[in-house]
Every structure is written in structure tokens, then in C-alpha cells.
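Batch 3, record 17
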Amino acid sequence: MTDVALSLSGLTVSFASGGGRVRAVEDVGFELVRGETLGLVGESGCGKSVTSLSLLGLLDPDVARVESGAARLGEVDLLRLSERELSRVRGAKVAMIFQEPMTSLNPVYSVGAQIGEAIRLHRDVSRKEARARAISLLSRVKIPAPEARVDAYPHELSGGMRQRVMIAMALACEPEVLIADEPTTALDVTIQAEILALLSELQRSMGMAILLVTHDLGVVAEVASRVVVMYAGRVVERAPVEALFARPLHPYAAGLFRSIPPIGASQRGEARRRLPTIEGVVPSLRELPRGCRFEPRCPERRPRCAEEEPPLTSQGERDVRCHFPLA
Amino acid sequence: MTPLLVATGLSVHFPVSTGLLSRGGRVVRAVDDVSLSVDAGETLAIVGESGCGKSTLGRAVLRLVEPTSGLVRFDGVDVTRLDQAALRKLRRRMQMVFQDPYSSLDPRMTVREIVGEGLVIHRLARGPALDARVGDLLARVGLPRDAMSRRPHAFSGGQRQRIGIARALAVSPDLIVCDEPTSALDVSVQAQVLNLLVELQAELGLAYLFISHDLKVVEHLAHRVAVMYLGRVVERAPAASIFARRRHPYTEALLSAAPVPDPGARRARLAIAGEPPSPLSPPSGCAFHPRCPRAVPGRCDVEAPALTDEPHAVACFFPD
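Prediction for the assembled complex:
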């Protein structure tokens, strides 16, 4: 298929833990289509950030190891590239933005210098041209007075403006794929709404694919077209966003949606009503259940679930990892 | 009925040093002339974005920061005039639960010491009676009794927040100021903590001053809501009333910006221009006027609107 921008399959990542190794991510895969936003969701420790960091070789090599898998971007497999080859791909073909722009920006250089450097790393242009391009990028991400802001330092900008600068840097070489890891989590809702709108607009004009890693189901509902749900290192459900939210097939996804305080409760006189919860806690990666990883907490569990881990199986346009998916 | 907590004209101004040679004199009005009341057994939610002053307001009510002016009465007692000894005594009835369950618990203390500290300070229990009471509190918040001998690092974020709640409950308070108590938690864990807060309120008649930026959580929990912008309350109403009809344009922007977990509901937003102004140099007139789609030149940039009377109070010259 020609319109697949990035195809990940069979990704397994292990971490050193105690004397041995644990698998933080196991057999994770998805296809990211050109021009679409794919949401990668799940709660703390489910492996969503490990998945996105491994795509760009950003895991700490002292503790993390990619055991298997392939991440095809055109002709190359990102997981097989050397650090030197990766640095050529990073920024040029795949770019990434993070939750906290302050930690990714260098405090001692102006934002113009940093955007310029990102451009000059991949393109043979003069300093002057790079600066002019930085100004046009700042204006493209709707930073007011870009000619003046190009000389500003990160600490002189608000959190929302810093995230815009990060986006400008990420877009400097018009990447095919943008990985956005919790890009609006640290921002206020009115600023979040603007950043999400900006990303959608840039995506439409540049045709790039976005992998949106987030814990926020509201954000996913707003911007993603398809969603991958992870639990304890596994993909448990993969589906178009409308289908998933209308009728989750995996009991974990269903439990997650039910635990969100419902909109409009105050109008229906239903405020303070007991929220459905998922009993128990996420299993430790050191002591994963033998069968389905959600089995100990699952309201639908049956004897088979404790014995045998279900495979990810296709149900029309969606996939679910469950022996007894919800009807 | 007299409200449990009444704040009148409460202000907290912080002096700002603007440089080595500055003479001072500049202040940030973190909280500016805020009045509110909370009844026994009621939840008043304070909502707003970073820097609006909501956390400072919560701390000023407990005098964890000193108010610059204004009055706080708790059960008829003027909190702002109490000396330290009297204040300590009153704190038995006013407790706080913090946002970050990692930094708000001392990692060197055992859970017994953390939860029992208030009981010891207020001489409410000691020895075996203290252990029994701590055990009961842990059981009440859904933790095993043997959690007592462990330290915070042995617990998950949700469990730590339960420890923080047990600590607040230990001294049998009437009011708990909750500062974003679930924003660091995953959604499934958040649901468990929200259920616990609702149960405790029903059971013990607790009042909550609930500070949050999460409107879904606020709609679920609050009886009444106050919206803050740049240190001031811009709208205040019963929850059902404010979620049905937002009268202040900032409230409308805030509510329409919140993402809804329903892909069918992607909708038009009331876009507001720009970012919140710096509290160091607040705009003239209504602080929201530079971003407001309804602002009328000559009026909104000149004069600050006062908060109208209850039940659905709004500080706007052109409310909806």
C-alpha cells in the first residue's frame, strides 16, 4: 500500500530490572497512513511512550533494548539504523515533539538559532537563509511578531509559545511523520485547543502523518481518526475512533471510557453518582499474568482467560485482543 | 444557616523584585478582592487556568499564605486575626489535600507517622489507640491496615493520594481544601479517588473547596462553581446553572475549549485570541477585555465590571 507513511510491526522492547529483564512493550504494531492522525492511548506504564521513543532510537541504551520488530518508513527500517543514519532521518523524515518544550529547548540559544540549526543540519543553506526560514516557520505556527520573536530566548516565552517553537523546529524540514508525545498535557485548555487546531491545520497543508501519544481520551476523540489502545505493554484494541468510542470491544477499553466523569451530569441530576471503576491495579511487568494481562481485573473473565493469552484478532475494520470481546 | 466558610474581599498580593536597582512597590495581585462562601457538606469548585490565583486562594483561606487584605471567617471565627496557637488549633477543622502525591508525602516517614501526625500534634491519640485509629483511616480510604509500616515509595500514585486523604481525615475536619487532587492520576484511578471523596462527603458531612482545571471532574463533584480569571472571580453559580448557561465569555471559552471524549461531538469553539495577560501588568478595565470577543471599546477597557448578585453571579458588562 503506497499511502502508508510508517508501518510498525512486532515491536518488543525490554528493560533491565533487578537482575533480569522485563518486557515493557511486546509485539506492538500499527500502520500510520499519510495525512492521518493515529492516537496511541493507555494509562501510565502501558508502554505507549516506550513505543514512540523506540521509533527514533531515543531509549536509553544502558537499560533498554529493542528485542525485535520492524518500523518501515519507505525503504528503511528505523529499528535497524545506526545512530549516524538515525540522526539523518530524525528531523528530516520523522520529527518528534514532547510534553515539556522547556526541557527540549536549549535555554542559552535564541529560538531562531535553534530552528536555524535544525534546518542547517539537513539542508545546505546559509545562516541568513536559515534565519529567514526560521522567521517564516514562526509565522506559520502563528507566533505574533515573528521577526522580533526569532531573537527571543525560550524563558521569555509562555508554555504555549514554546510548544509552537517546538512545532516550528519539528516542521523545519517538512517531515513525513510527526510523533507528538503528550504535546498539550502541560498546557491550559484554551491553549491546548489552539495547539491542536494548529497541528490539524499544518497536517492538512503538509500532508504529514501524526502519531499522537496521549493519556487524554478527550484529545484523541477530538483529533485522531484511528486509535490504538495499549494495556500492560500490549495492544488490546485497534479501531477507527468513532467505532471505538461508540462501542469498545475490549473490556479494558470499555472500563476506561466508563470511568470518565460524564459530560452533562449536572443537567441530568446525576452529579456525584458513583463512577464505574476498574477493580485492582495494573500488573507489575515482573509478574505478568500467565493468560490475558487484563484477566485479574476483567469483569468478563472466564477460566480460559487465565490460561491462555488471546491473540490480536481482526473483526472487520478493527482488531481486538480478547477471547470474549464485548458484543 | 450560616455558611461554614466565608471569605470577604480577600486579596493576596506578592511583592515583585524587578531588578537589582528597583525600589520595589510593584506587586502581583494573585488574588484580588475575592468573596466566596462554602456551606457545611457542600463542594465549591474553583476553576480557572494556570496563574489565575485559584491555588493561592485555597492556601490563603487556610492562611498557608498570608492574605494582604480581606476577611476569612470559619464557623464564625475570624481566621485572619488568629495568632499562631489559635490558628494551629483551628487547622484541626480545616485540612488540605495536595495535587502531587509524590512531593506532598515525606519519603522518610512511615505511613503511620504521616497519617498519625495530626493526631499526635493535636493530642487526639497515642500508643495503641493511635495505631488503631490510623488503621481505621487506612481501611476507610481503601488501603490495607498493614500499609502503616511502609513508606510512600512503596505505593502507586493513586494509593499515595489515598494516604494524603487519610492524613487530612485523621483530625476529623469540617472542610478540606483539595488542590487538583486527581490531576496527576490516570483516569481509571481518578474515578476511584472521586468516588472516595463523594462517599466521605456523604458519610461525614465534609465541605470541599475543590480547586481544579478539569471541568469534567468539576461537573461531577461540585454543588457550586466559581470561575477565576487573573485573580478575580468572573462567574459564580450552582453547577447545574453554570453548565447549562455560561454567562461570562471567558467561562464560555473555557468550557468550549475542553476536549470532549466523544468523536461525534467535534464542534465549533468560541476561539479567544492570545494568551492570558501577565498578572504583573494586568490590562485596564476588565482583565479579560483584550481577548474578549464581546469587548466594547470605551467601556470594557476603561471600567472593571463588578460581580453581580447571586444566584448566578457574573462580572461582565455584556453577559449572556
